[in-house]
Write a structure and sequence with these properties.
alpha/beta, 12 helices, about 30% helix, binds pyridoxal-5'-phosphate, eight-stranded parallel sheet, elongated
Length: about 375
C-alpha cells in the first residue's frame, strides 16, 4: 500500500462483499431482497460497487450527492433516495434517482410534475408510520387514499409500493405485529388498485429480526440494509433484537488506523482543580496509579467519540479523547510500542459514519 497517510480508514472489500452475501442469502430464504444502503460509509463508490458485485438489487442513500457519485461511477442499478425528499431537491432527485421514499402529498405532486418535465417515470414508495413517529402517514386510511391518487392521477410516478421505518426516533421494535400491519396495508392498497405492489419494504437492519425469528409476512419483500452489512456484530443490533445470526459476519470490514504521537507513563488522575473537559463534560478519572499511555493522532473531530471505536491491540483501552487526540491506556499491552507505530480500531456505526464523512481521513482499499 506504500506510505499511508493517517488517520486512515482501510476497507477490506472481500469481507464487505461476504457480509452482503450472507445477509442477502438469509433474506432470500424468506423471500426478501435487499437495497444496499451506503450512507453509513459516506456513500463511498467502492462500497456501492461491493454491494452491486454481491447482488444488491438497489443502491440506496439518504443523500442525493452520494447517489449522484454512484451514478457517475457507472454503477448500473436502480438508485433510491431513502430520506424523504426536500421540495428544494425535486429536480435533482428526478434526474439522479430512480426511486424514493415519500410521505407528503405536496412533494408527490411536485415529483409528478418534474418527472413529466424530464420525461421520466419516477418510482415512489409511500411510508407508513407504524408508531416510531419519524416519517410516514400515521393514518393508514390516508396512506391508502394517497396510494390510489398516485396510481390513478400521477402519470409521472409509478407507485412501486409501501414501506416503513422503525427503531429510529421512537426505538420501536420491528415485531411480528408491526410487519403484519404493513402487509395488511399493502393488501388493502392492492385490492383498491387491482394489481400487486412491486415492493413492500419492511425496514432497515433492525428488521432482520423478522428474518431470523421467521415471522416476516410473505407480503414484505424488501429490506433497506446498511449498518448490519457494514459493521456486522459490532453494533448493538444483536443485543437489542436478539439475533445471534449476525455473529457470522465480519466486524472489521472497516478499520481505523491512527499513529502514536506520544508514549509516556503518567498518573491516571489529572493534577489540579478539575473543571470541565474540552467538550464541557465532567468525566470521572478513576485512580489506577501510574499507567503507560499512548496518544494517537485522531480525535472526536474524526470518530465522534471514544465509545464508537474498539482497539484491536490486545490490552489497549481507550480512556479519552479531545477533538484531535485519542488517549489509550496501554499498560497491559505486551507488544512493544513506540512513537510512530500505528494502532488499529474496529468501528461502530457512528464512527464509520463520521470517519468516512471527514475530509481529514484518508480511505484505503485492500
Ligand atoms: C438509514 C436508513 C436505512 C438503513 O438503516 P441501517 O440501520 O443502516 O440498516 C433504511 N431506511 C431508512 C429510511 C434509513 O434512513
Amino acid at each position: 500500500m506504500g506510505q499511508m497517510k493517517y488517520p486512515a480508514v482501510v476497507i477490506d472489500h472481500a469481507k464487505l462483499r461476504e457480509n452482503f452475501r450472507i445477509i442477502a442469502a438469509d433474506c432470500a430464504k424468506e423471500g426478501v431482497f435487499i437495497a444496499g444502503v451506503i450512507k453509513g460509509a459516506g456513500g463511498l463508490v467502492s462500497v456501492a460497487e461491493d454491494f452491486a458485485a454481491a447482488g444488491a438489487k438497489i443502491i440506496a442513500s439518504s443523500r442525493l450527492e452520494q447517489l449522484e457519485r454512484v451514478r457517475e461511477a457507472g454503477i448500473d442499478l436502480p438508485l433510491m433516495l431513502i430520506r424523504i425528499p426536500m421540495l428544494s431537491e425535486v429536480p435533482e432527485l428526478i434526474s439522479i434517482a430512480d426511486m424514493s421514499l415519500n410521505n407528503e402529498h405536496e412533494v408527490l405532486l411536485e415529483l409528478n410534475k418534474e418527472a413529466g418535465k424530464q420525461n421520466k417515470r419516477h418510482k415512489v414508495i409511500l411510508m407508513q408510520d407504524l408508531g416510531d413517529l419519524r416519517e410516514g402517514w400515521f393514518d393508514r386510511q390516508e396512506l391508502i387514499e394517497e396510494a390510489v391518487t398516485v396510481e390513478n392521477e400521477m402519470d409521472g410516478l409509478i407507485l412501486a409500493g409501501i414501506g416503513t421505518n422503525l427503531g429510529c426516533y421512537g426505538s420501536v421494535m420491528p415485531t411480528e405485529d408491526k410487519m403484519k400491519q404493513l402487509a395488511e396495508t399493502a393488501v388493502d392498497i392492492e385490492n383498491r388498485i387491482g394489481r400487486q405492489l412491486e415492493i413492500v419494504s419492511g425496514g432497515a437492519t433492525s428488521s432482520l429480526m423478522g428474518i431470523y425469528d421467521r415471522y416476516m409476512p410473505e407480503k414484505v419483500n424488501m429490506l433497506r440494509i446498511g449498518a448490519g452489512i457494514l459493521t456486522g456484530p459490532l453494533d448493538d443490533f444483536r443485543t437489542t433484537y436478539g439475533y445471534t445470526e449476525i455473529d457470522r459476519l465480519h466486524d472489521d470490514c472497516f478499520k481505523l488506523r491512527a499513529e502514536v504521537i506520544e508514549l509516556k507513563r503518567k498518573p491516571s488522575r489529572p493534577i489540579g482543580t478539575l473543571g470541565v473537559d474540552a467538550f464541557g463534560n465532567k468525566p470521572e478519572y478513576p485512580d489506577r496509579g501510574e499507567r503507560m499511555r499512548a496518544i494517537v493522532a485522531v480525535g472526536r473531530a474524526d470518530h465522534g467519540g471514544t465509545e464508537y471505536i474498539v482497539p484491536t491491540l490486545e490490552g489497549a483501552e481507550v480512556i479519552g479523547a479531545s477533538g484531535d487526540h485519542t488517549i489509550l491506556d496501554v499498560e497491559n499491552v505486551t507488544e512493544p510500542l513506540k512513537v510512530g507505530d500505528i494502532i488499529e480500531f474496529k468501528l461502530i456505526y457512528a464512527a464509520l459514519l463520521n470517519l468516512t464523512g471527514s475530509e481529514n481521513v484518508k480511505i484505503y482499499d485492500i
